[in-house]
């Protein structure tokens, strides 16, 4: 009898496994070999910062065209690849850049240490094509790392894993087929050596990779590089552009199980609301990543409300500036960032260290929350009333505008009827604070119509 039972049991187990393994319940993730090893504590700290400075800079500023992309297009390769010989940003002052970031209310700074044109803004032992070959001959990355440490700003580095200048990388953004004489394994040795060099010399808080969409790069290379880097620095934060799965290039929903990295990186758009996986939107203050003469900059309201909308979606904003060829960030951009910082001095509690929700964002308002407060961000100063679904099992003890004035709130039939002052105080963006009798983070997500 016993033998018949075990035989039967074996058959059931085999059928059970076949059903589940084909139904995808146990389907191996595409990157079964990848697992993010960055702790939740580290990621929570990063995500609590909400706001960082992105800097795209290099010899290409001498032409005012897009970094990397204009090589061999708006700027002939022979011209582009010799710009470094003229690159002498004598007005570069790392402390000034970092103070500009700090005055903007930014908590971290990410510099394009090496973009797709392959030029390195630090003295590298693994290439001649670096800042020491220019008349400037100063370690830009090193000076920024030092200034960030001095001003308590987290120092981060952008690093491209494609390199249209390096002969060992098979693709050169010239529309031609990959170069058969290129040697990808040698290229990977070079970038591993350079990454070891910058981690050792500058101790970056986060590495922001880019350029994984081209054919020579594979997810396996990304997984190998991620594990190599984590072997060098256990607490290093690494974005998701070591792998092919991301939103920045594809406008589809991201399958987080397939990502290689610690956070998602939507680009030039506010990312989708997501409480489960960290994300950071990278967005330009103008229209071009690198400096562009007379570029059209975003208005202050667009800048502030972009930050609000990323925080309301539970994400960070990496906001990009393009310094000029002489090393200064143009005054227009500095002024805009300072005004963002002034707004954050009043309303920063509704951004830093918050979670997105509980109200899903819409065209009239969005929301963030922290401890026993829900912050309702009102995008239009002319709004006079708001009707919101009430939080179940929660009491609103106080409702007021963030800079003080109390606001009438009546709860009837599961709704809050809120009467706002005729003219809201802030011309850029206003914040209504609902103080609750319990922690707001437990409130389930609520879809509220924008009326
Ligand atoms: O090609 C780059 C581009 O130049 C810029 O660096 C952005 C910033 O995220 N990333 C790539 C485009 O997705």
Quick gist of this model?
By secondary structure, the protein is of the alpha/beta class. Helices cover 27% and strands 18% of the residues. The chain binds ligand FHN.
Write up what this structure looks like.
27% of the residues lie in helices and 18% in strands. With 451 residues, the protein is of the alpha/beta class. The chain has two domains: 9-350, Glycosidases (TIM Barrel), CATH 3.20.20.80; 355-442, Golgi alpha-mannosidase II (Immunoglobulin-like). The strands form three sheets. A seven-stranded parallel sheet has the order 5-4-3-2-1-7-6. The protein has a five-stranded antiparallel sheet with strand order 8-9-10-15-12, with helices on one face. α4 crosses α5 and α6 packs parallel to α7. The N and C termini lie far apart (70 Å). 44% of the residues are buried. Ligand FHN binds at residues 67-69, 210, 248, 267, 282, 289.
């Amino acid at each position: 009898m016993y033998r018949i039972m075990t035989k039967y049991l074996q058959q059931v187990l085999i059928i059970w496994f076949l059903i589940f393994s084909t139904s995808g319940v146990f389907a191996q993730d595409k990157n079964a070999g990848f697992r993010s090893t960055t702790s939740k504590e580290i990621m929570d700290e990063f995500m609590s910062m909400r706001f960082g400075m992105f800097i795209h800079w290099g010899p290409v500023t001498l032409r005012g065209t897009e970094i990397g992309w204009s090589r061999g297009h708006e700027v002939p390769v022979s011209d582009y690849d010799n710009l470094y010989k003229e690159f002498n940003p004598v007005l570069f002052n790392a402390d000034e850049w970092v103070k500009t970031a700090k005055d903007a209310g930014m908590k971290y700074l990410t510099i394009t240490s090496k973009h797709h044109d392959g030029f390195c803004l630090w003295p590298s032992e693994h290439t001649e094509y670096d800042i020491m070959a220019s008349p400037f001959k100063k370690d830009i990355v090193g000076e920024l790392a030092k200034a960030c440490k001095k001003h308590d700003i987290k120092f981060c580095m952008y690093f491209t894993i494609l390199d249209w200048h390096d002969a060992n990388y098979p693709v050169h953004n010239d529309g031609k087929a990959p170069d058969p004489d290129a040697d990808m394994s040698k290229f990977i040795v070079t970038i591993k050596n350079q990454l070891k060099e910058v981690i050792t010399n500058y101790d970056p808080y986060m590495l922001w990779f880019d350029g994984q969409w081209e054919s020579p790069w594979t997810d396996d290379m990304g997984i190998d590089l991620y594990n190599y880097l984590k072997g060098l620095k256990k607490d290093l934060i690494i974005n998701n552009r070591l792998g092919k799965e991301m939103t920045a290039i594809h406008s589809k929903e991201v399958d987080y199980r397939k990502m290689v990295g610690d956070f998602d990186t939507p680009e030039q758009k506010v990312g989708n609301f997501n409480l489960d996986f960290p994300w950071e939107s990278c967005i330009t203050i103008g229209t071009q990543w690198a400096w562009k003469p007379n570029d059209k900059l975003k208005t202050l309201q667009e800048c502030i409300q972009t930050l609000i909308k990323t925080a309301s979606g539970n994400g960070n904003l990496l906001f990009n500036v393009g310094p000029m060829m002489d090393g200064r960030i143009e005054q227009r951009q500095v002024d805009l960032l300072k005004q963002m910082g002034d707004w954050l001095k009043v309303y920063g509690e509704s951004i830093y260290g918050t979670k997105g929700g509980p109200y899903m964002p819409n065209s009239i308002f969005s929301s963030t929350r922290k401890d026993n407060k829900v912050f309702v961000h009102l995008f239009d100063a002319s709004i006079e009333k708001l009707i919101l679904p009430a939080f179940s099992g929660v009491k609103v003890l106080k409702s007021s505008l963030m800079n003080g004035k109390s606001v009438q709130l009546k709860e009837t039939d599961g709704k809050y009827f809120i009467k706002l002052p005729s003219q809201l105080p802030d011309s850029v963006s206003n914040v209504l604070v609902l103080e609750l009798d319990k922690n707001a983070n437990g409130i389930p997500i609520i879809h509220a119509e924008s009326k």
